[in-house]
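Two records follow; treat each independently.
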Amino acid sequence: MIRSAFASFVITAVLLVLVVGIVLVPIAMSLPDPLAVLDTFVFGPFRNPRHTGNIIEMATPAMMCGLAVAVMFRAGMFNLGVEGAFFLGGLATVATVLLVPLPAFAMAPVGILVGAIVGSSVCVVPGYLRARYEASELVSSLMLNFAALFIGLFVVNYFLRDPAAGAMVSYKIPNDAKLPKLIAGTRIHLGTLIALAACGLGAVYLFMTRAGFEARIVGSNPSFAAHLGLPIRSILLRSQVIGGLIAAGAGGIEMLGLYQRFSWQSLPGNGWTGVVVAILARDSPILLIPAALFLSYLQVGGDLIARNFDVPSEAVGLIQALVLIVVTAQAIMRNPRLLRFVAGSKPATNAAKETKAVEGGIA
């Protein structure tokens, strides 16, 4: 299983390199020094400790959001509420450390815990609607992302806003609440170790516990799960709760690790990155680590050439879009259920059998 996922990851990574090359080489050839452009993109992220640290900083939330997506995808749930959960988790964490009187040692853990619980609602609500009413969690989670955004902006503007800041941002996060930095000269913080540990624990949960085994059965074959008499509703909802807690906790970690204030005016995009990372890693918690680092490396390389050469930001965005298309297309082609969902159809015989079996299992 792990070997197959790793082989797929390597093949996809090679394909992504080719796609990036197809876009980047013509851009480089149009500039006075094309070799310098390619050299900066490929090797630039490793020449400066700060740039290398940027890779790890960006990979930290990507790993945790990817883990949240992987846990839900393994149960067959296409919940995209990770983005909203990440945003709301970061906001609730900052609100907790600003408004609740806590001792210094408890600020960070309590703030992250509260943020995880509050933010997870963006994933739990679509999960409940799917488990209880068979409502599409894809649609409801996408809508809730923007509901979470506007609720968050309202809270910042009316309850957390610092009038002396000159912008719609919160008061400064107390120093006692911030996560410690791990490496001097970079912004790598304790959250990186938490993300690595979370990926390890995610692998244990999915592949070494009964709950994880049940989730994988439901995700791979709901008819067989119903035949076994598994509590499908409970398993689906449990996966949404776990995924939501991870995603929202990641938002709190990101805030306390890198930010001085809560300053997000829009959805930060880490949840969408997590979806790409999870697909690239084939929902393997261990492979999330190299997948997140690889995508972060491409991002840092693209940012370097955009800053140091006359490369428009749209070109960097094109590279990112092609990466997203390639990874998503691969996921759709290898997942028959997702392919039928995207196509908007399902064979009638299979649909009838699956519906009947699932109803029998959750009655």
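The next record belongs to a different protein.
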Amino acid sequence: MDSTVRGTIEMTAAMTILGTIGWFVVMSGQPIMDVVFWRCAFGAITLLIICAALGLLRGRLSLRIVAIAALGGAAIVVNWLLLFSSFSRASISIATAVYNTQPFMLVGFGALFFSERLTMTKLAWLGIAFTGMLLIVQGSPDAGSDAGPNTGNVGTDYFTGIAMALGAAFFWAVAAIVTKKLKGTPPHLIALIQVCVGVVMLAPFANFSQLPADAWSWSMLATLGVVHTGLMYILMYGAIQKLPTHLQGSLSFIYPVVAILVDVVAFGHRLHPAQIVGAAAILIAAAGMNLGWTLWKSKTPAGSTQAIK
């Protein structure tokens, strides 16, 4: 299978899984600090078993790999803390949509640090996707407003939630750029190092004196660790190492669409017409980026039979 095709499949699966994460965070009923700690702990156990089974723990780690992966891990942990905290302030739908400014940060980082070319077609598709994201955000009712559809419990700290989601997007982009420095390193190892960093970072703040008392909460936390961390990050990091930055960005838009659909199915939240249009714009832009669609005809120079792309 072609590397780009495989990376596309992996990124699509990862973003679909990620789209359900808000439901598990909310249904766990635990403080955000504890949710992130247990996500890292269960994720570390899962990834350690996988890495050991694949023989990845023997002679593959160097101080450079550990240091770079740990830096990415610190960014990922801050990302999770900010994003999960934003859910109760700006609602899952709005926070998720705002969080997906990350592809634009990725494209900017790619141009700045990797000299990746920004064509007008790429910018146009990203612009359409960004417009779709704005429609999703503006289609939700403001805090305290009775107008518009029900998209979740919008917290009183609405703008703080928006700022947290933007901060989470920034740290996700930082982690993604750091991961590109580890090309050739198995994504299983990268993810293992990063969640281990999370365990060490958050252990002093975790509330071990009041552990979840019911099986439901533990099942939510375990799923966040095993599926949304172990499996999802293996898929995502594997894709990041195979795909150019602009393609990663376009596929990331699958995440907010799935998150909104989860809101509809799981919580019965109604979508505003603007949100439907926004979701459609995001999907069309992602398809256009992936399939190489153009928004205008290329001019063919005189005497040439090949169009300029």
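Discussion point: The mean pLDDT is 81. How would you locate this feature using only the token line?
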